[in-house]
Predict the structure.
Amino acid sequence: MPSIPRPDTVLITAGPTYEPIDAVRFIGNRSSGRLGVELARAAHAVGLDVILALGPNTVAPPSFPERLRVDRFRTCADLEELLLDLWPGHADVLVMAAAVADYRPKQPAPGGKLRRHSEGLTIEMEATPDLVAACARRKKPGQRVIGFALETQAELMSSAADKIRRKGLDAIVANPLETMDADEIDGLLIRADGRHESPGRLSKPMFAAWLIDRIMRG
Ligand code: C5P
């Protein structure tokens, strides 16, 4: 008997957040959401119900007639609100693959568009709330929270292990910076108890199938 129950529903977040500077500009990142979309596909293929929270400017999500719901977000604040609605009430496992901004403009320019000035522009930024850490604090017994960590190769293991502790995660997928917006991923799954494994460099669909299999096994 596995000690962790087989999940029924998985909540996957994917893609970047766009943090507004003014009405037309934002600070974002190059995340394509591709791995998260492949995770949704792989989870659906093994019979899980899937909720996919997908950010702006990402690859198209799959459309299945049943067992897949797609919610969209744009900013970290949008995603925070979605997660407050969905977690821990609507899923057994949260896979937080979204590339959430760590900082956002403190005060987006009210209305309209910032004017160009020859003396330059300073934008004051504030730290965003750590959404996955907040979800980990809200989880109930039997639920699992899996984070992602984009790291330089030199710090891959140590920094990801530190994030598991700091954020209270059950596991983290550490992957090198080159993964962002790439076709392949060389991911390392590290669990809170220190066990770690990697399937080697794989296409994102193959890695997604591997990770979902590991999640199903507990
Ligand atoms: O600390 P770092 O941003 O490297 O951690 C990455 C993990 O934390 C990812 O799972 C990401 O989705 C999550 N994260 C978050 N809220 C933030 C920043 C990152 O949930 N404000």
Notes: The pocket of cytidine-5'-monophosphate is lined by residues 76, 96, 98, 100, 102, 128, 130-132, 147-149, 163 (CB under 6 Å). Residues 204-217 form the longest helix (14 residues). The domain at 9-103+124-217 is CATH 3.40.50.10300 (Rossmann fold). The CA atoms of residues 11 and 94 lie 5 Å apart.
